[in-house]
Amino acid sequence: MDxxxxxxxxxxxxxxxxxxxxxxxxxxxxxxxxxxxxTAYRDVLPVAVLDEWxxxxxxxxxxxxxxxxxxxxxxxxxxxxxxxxxxxAAYGPAELGAGEVPDPAGPTTEIATLLVEPRWGRRGHGSxxxxxxxxxxMATGTAxxxxxxxxxxGVSARFYESAGWAPxxxxxxxxxxxxxxxxxxWHTMLTDxxxxxxxxxx
Length: 202
Description:
By secondary structure, the chain is α+β, with helices and mostly antiparallel strands. Helices cover 34% and strands 28% of the residues.
């Protein structure tokens, strides 16, 4: 995101906020990722992924995601509380699945990951990140948001459901080097959010 791009209206307060990630945020983003995975996803992700974590490689991958995104539609946001990065979200244009046709309503943005470190949970950081991604997506004409969630991840499913998302009927199985990981796709139409905002403005 360049300096001329307006940031979403929903950024928080002086103590809690959401902003675009910077290159020097990469170590903190990698730390939030591994701490959250090891704490909240140990029963979901393969043990090898968690125990053989390469901190340097993860940090460099996130730095590259921030400094050299694959397309202008890709981005990384961070949630901040009192100057500490406590969560992040990565997003980009969605790829069509096998046999899937483009949505006639318009483009789709996919949330690749949205994580909040567990000790900072229940403070609205996840909701602020989700709202910021939605605002950025709507500003570029995106019609729909989607995310893939592990089928057994009830916590994330309840979070997205509370935000008005729903399962879309698509599923996939990923090879992880251990037990296959089955994921289901959730989505929300941003056109519905535009309608809600129009009603509130009346």
